[in-house]
Design a protein that fits this description.
Chain A is mainly alpha-helical. Chain A contains 14 helices and two strands. A two-stranded antiparallel sheet of chain A has the order 1-2. The chains are: A mainly alpha, B mainly alpha.
Chain lengths: 362, 344
């Protein structure tokens, strides 16, 4: 048994991690497919759905996409290390509620915003403590904090809302850059995406993330402080969720306990759709960005085509399952073909380039 | 294959006895917590322990106990099923609709419908997990929303109210045998069957084997895929039966029935001492956990604590339970290492 998460371990003999193709090739295929499907969905929606291709809807789409994309960034790193954070949406809710409480207490918004991000970081540190110091599975821990943080959000604000936010801030959150249809939030989002992309794909930290996910034991023997890395990833995830809490509150001009409720489904689905392996060790940010764009534009287009919100969750849930099921099915089909034509037909397993990361030990 | 496991590993055989002792202590601990909670709440409001109060408690616990028993089967195999709340909702709505259209089916017919709907949901999970190789967490997080979406689709904004349901079915919801609600007896029967199955039957023991070490279980000749399919289908079917009980008890069912229930059930199971790493735990413990959570839920308003705390308590209990398990198993591991240093 390699250092799997407990979820991965239940996988039956069906090969969860295919061995045949060099991982970068499969990975590139999935990435390309996601990008192509995204372009296809956007084109079809622009042609077939009224109002989808308008500048106004573009701005709206970006506002919809912003929380998902920003939450997906640290979650991508966490999933690549083989862990998961299901508490992101509840953290957004709790930080939003905390923001409301601080505003009611009379603090200036300039103080509240950094404090809210700090609250998020502390909440992430709680996850990190349980996962790394106590060595508990992140799945169980973050299901616990999913309930705990949402519950505390309701404890803070009840079912009420804090809505008297200063216009200057709320207008910025939904405003556009000059006279373009591009929302203000695009700039910070681009900065965040760039930072996470550089860290993941061009720094030792990023290499450590892949190494930890590929084989945690090997990674720690090669000198990577895997537990410390995971701890800080959870802290980052919490801080980013705090940032999203600020944005969410200002965008809707409302701090509520149920803000962003259920959003974890969309975020996890987008990350996995973007080609990140739930078993860890594989994935890249460009794919994740494409996954987020695909999922949110699909939801946006379906909503414009007056599909109900509940039906949307069916689509999201379905895509979540398919994005893990499909590679597995393809891999086992490929293996069956490979077995039939004999072992010589197998392409040699060569180590992938940096971005693909090391393969797991099985 | 790495010999060293940084991730939580299943306990070695030599830890089993110690862990078993600890888990028995867990049951004692839950019972003590229950007694203290009931005593305090009764001191505040004596009617809490009156005949009606106890009946309400048992009614409230019956659905959670059913779902906790089902989830235990899955968690023992190192799996999880987050879709139980949605399965319950779907089953409750479909059962209600069927009984509305065909009242002649009565209670047995309703149960069959609910079980079938639940088993079908569990079958989808089983297919995706055991055959498709998708991790249970991802699969059932997906079906949590898919099943719920289907309920909304089927319901389309409508709701089933008591006047739509056959009176015999509603009477079943409030019926009592020797003062004990029938619904709770149903849950007890299911609990007893599951306890015997897990403890005595080979297929039940296989679930523990799979949870302790899937690879070893497979090599030892356990039909892992078939057992996993069985566990998920059974879990779904019990959630489906829970839906029937839900409909019978409340009489009204809307599309949001059972929303968020999965967190409470997960909490009941881990509080009841079922290890989230698989391989150990009992349905009786899970049922005690479910009872404890129900009592907490009922005593909050009596104690004057804001109802908004309930979800936070659920989350805190999950964290406390898994944290406690971990600390205890680390202790157990280190003490057994001291006793027999050559074993590990």
């Amino acid at each position: 048994m390699s250092a799997d998460t407990s979820t991965a371990a239940t996988a039956p003999p069906v090969p969860a991690r295919p061995q045949q193709a060099p991982s970068w090739r499969r990975f590139a295929t999935w990435d390309t497919a996601v990008v192509l499907v995204t372009v296809g969905v956007v084109l079809i929606a622009a042609l077939g759905v009224d109002n989808f291709g308008t500048g106004r809807n573009f701005g709206f789409l970006v506002l919809e996409l912003a929380p998902v994309l920003v939450l997906a960034l640290p979650l991508t790193l966490i999933i690549i290390t083989g862990e998961i954070d299901l508490s992101v949406a509840s953290t957004v809710g709790l930080t939003s509620a905390a923001m409301g409480v601080m505003w009611n207490a009379g603090l200036p918004l300039e103080t509240i915003v950094p404090l809210t991000v700090l609250v998020g970081a502390v909440l992430g540190a709680v996850n990190g403590f349980f996962v790394t110091t106590l060595g508990l599975p992140s799945l169980a821990v973050t299901i616990g904090t999913l309930a705990l943080y949402r519950g505390l959000a309701f404890v803070l604000l009840g079912d009420g809302a804090v809505a008297d936010w200063p216009r200057a801030f709320t207008d910025w959150a939904i405003g556009d850059l000059g006279r373009t249809p591009v929302p203000n939030v695009v700039l910070p989002i681009l900065v965040l995406v760039a930072v996470f992309a550089v860290v993941l794909h061009a720094t030792p930290v990023g290499r450590a993330v892949y190494a930890t996910g590929a084989n945690e034991t090997a990674a720690s023997f090669s000198g990577i402080a895997t537990l410390r890395l995971k701890f800080w990833l959870f802290v980052t995830s919490g801080a980013v969720a705090g940032l999203v809490g600020v944005f969410w509150t200002l965008r809707f001009s409302s701090a509520r306990g149920d803000n962003a409720s259920g959003l974890e489904l969309t975020v996890v689905a987008a990350v996995l759709l973007g080609g990140v392996s739930i078993f860890g060790g594989k994935g890249a940010l460009p794919g994740v960005v494409a996954g987020v764009v695909l999922l949110t534009s699909l939801q946006n287009a379906l909503r414009l085509a007056s599909v109900s919100a509940e039906a949307l969750t069916v689509v999201t849930g379905f895509l979540l399952i398919v994005s893990v099921l499909l590679p597995n099915v393809l891999a086992s089909a490929r293996q069956r073909i490979g077995r039939r034509s004999g072992p010589t037909a197998r392409p040699p397993t060569t180590p992938g380039p940096p971005a693909a990361g090391e393969r797991k030990s099985r | 294959m790495s010999a060293v496991d940084t991730a939580p590993a299943p306990e070695g055989v030599q830890d089993r006895d110690l862990l078993g002792t600890v888990l028995r202590f867990r049951a004692v601990g839950i019972v003590l917590a229950l007694l203290v909670l009931v005593a305090v709440t009764t001191a505040v409001n004596p009617r809490f322990l009156g005949a009606q109060g106890v009946r309400d408690l048992l009614l409230g616990a019956s659905v959670t106990v059913l779902l906790a028993v089902g989830l235990t089967l899955v968690v023992i195999t190192r799996g999880i099923d987050l879709s139980v709340g949605s399965t319950l909702g779907l089953s409750a709505f479909v059962t209600g609709s069927v009984l509305e259209a065909a009242p002649a089916l009565g209670v047995p017919g309703g149960m069959v419908v609910g079980l079938l709907v639940g088993a079908a949901c569990g079958g989808v999970n089983a297919l995706v997990i055991a055959v498709g190789g998708v991790p249970p967490l991802v699969a059932t997080l997906g079906t949590l929303y898919v099943f719920r979406g289907i309920v909304y689709f089927v319901a389309g904004g409508s709701r089933i109210s008591a006047s739509d349901l056959p009176s015999g079915f509603l009477a079943f919801g409030t019926a009592r045998l020797l003062g004990v609600p029938i619904l709770f007896l149903v849950a007890l029967v299911v609990l007893a069957v599951a306890a015997v199955h897990l403890g005595q039957n080979r297929s039940g023991r296989d679930l523990y084997a799979i949870g302790s070490n899937p690879e070893a279980a497979r090599l030892a000749g356990v039909a892992t895929t078939r057992r996993l399919v069985g566990a998920y289908v059974a879990c779904g079917a019990l959630a489906g039966l829970g839906g029937v009980l839900y409909a019978a008890r409340f009489g009204t069912v809307d599309a949001s029935a059972g929303s968020g229930l999965e967190l409470q059930v997960v909490a009941a199971v881990v509080v009841g001492g079922v290890a989230i790493f698989g391989g150990s735990g009992s349905v009786v413990g899970a049922a005690l956990g479910a009872l404890l959570l129900t009592v907490i839920g009922y005593s909050l308003p009596v104690l004057g604590i804001d109802q908004f705390w309930s979800q936070a308590i659920v989350g805190a209990l999950i964290l406390a339970a898994i944290g406690l398990d971990r600390v205890v198993s680390l202790r157990a591991a280190s003490s057994s290492r001291a006793k027999a240093s050559h074993v590990r």
